[in-house]
Structure formats: structure tokens, C-alpha cells
Design a protein that fits this description.
CATH topology: Nucleotidyltransferase, domain 5
Number of domains: 1
CATH class: Alpha Beta
Structural class: alpha/beta
Shape: globular
Number of strands: 5
Distance between the termini: 14 Å
Number of helices: 4
Largest sheet: 5 strands, mixed
CATH architecture: 2-Layer Sandwich
Radius of gyration: 14 Å
Length: 139
């Protein structure tokens, strides 16, 4: 079963899709839009193209675990995605994923400009890896 992880941002949304077994993160991309409708359309296209059966959406909690406006935005998107695609949507704690993604790209020698282009896709991969590890541990 393919699972798609989504790192939803204001201007860029990172996407990572697992392999068919649902064990490994595979394809990644970034959707560049500030419009939720455009992002949802892009997600829908990828769902169809890759046969995605489950979605995991980054849930941006504050560092102290409380929920703020960004978490509310993720909850609203989760509802839109469930209604649009009739797929399960799991909210996944994404604290530190963007920081970790920047560190990964910096250690790989990517300059700040190049990191900006791919950081959201790397963050989505980290969300997906965490979620897949969690699912394996429960199996």
C-alpha cells in the first residue's frame, strides 16, 4: 500500500510517497503554490498517478506540545483531503522535521538557495519515515 506524506506550507508543500510495500520512502516532490485549491489538485494528481491509499499530514505542534494556528490549518486541510479523496488522513507530529531537513541538506553540501528548493520534500520524507517506522512497530 502506497502512503503519501504531506508537509503543508504557506508557499511550498513537500510530498513524499512510499514504495508499493509501504515500507520505504520513495518519490519526493514539492508543490509550489500559496493556494490551497492548487495544492489539493496537485495532491489529487499524485494520488491517482501513484495509487496512494493513505495520507499522512504533518501536524505542526508547538515545541511545548500545544496547538497553534498552523496546527489548525493542518486540521482544516486534513478535512478537505478526506472529503476530496475519501482516504484516511493521519495527522503526524512534525516538530523539528524542517530543521532536520535543513541540516541534512547542509551536510550534503547544498547552499541555502538550493536547500530552499528541496527542504519541504526532505521534510515530507522525514514525516513519512517516522510514520512508516511507527506503523511497522505496531504490526
Amino acid at each position: 500500500m502506497r502512503i503519501m506524506a504531506i508537509d503543508y506550507g504557506d508557499a511550498h508543500t513537500g510530498i513524499a510517497i512510499s514504495d508499493r510495500t509501504g515500507l520505504l520512502a520513495g518519490y519526493t516532490t514539492t508543490l509550489h503554490s500559496r493556494k490551497q485549491e492548487t495544492v489539493v489538485e496537485g495532491i489529487g494528481r499524485l494520488i491517482g498517478e501513484y495509487g496512494v491509499e493513505e495520507l499522512v499530514l504533518g501536524y505542526p505542534k508547538n515545541m511545548d506540545g500545544t496547538l497553534g494556528p498552523r496546527a489548525e490549518k493542518a486540521e482544516a486541510l486534513a478535512k478537505v483531503l478526506e472529503d476530496a479523496f475519501h482516504l484516511p488522513v493521519a495527522l503526524w507530529d512534525e516538530r523539528r522535521t524542517t530543521i532536520d531537513a535543513h541540516n541534512i541538506l547542509a551536510s550534503a553540501g547544498k547552499n541555502a538557495k538550493k536547500r530552499k528548493q528541496t527542504v519541504d520534500a526532505v521534510a515530507a520524507s522525514l514525516i513519512l519515515e517516522g510514520y512508516l517506522t511507527f506503523k511497522r512497530s505496531r504490526a
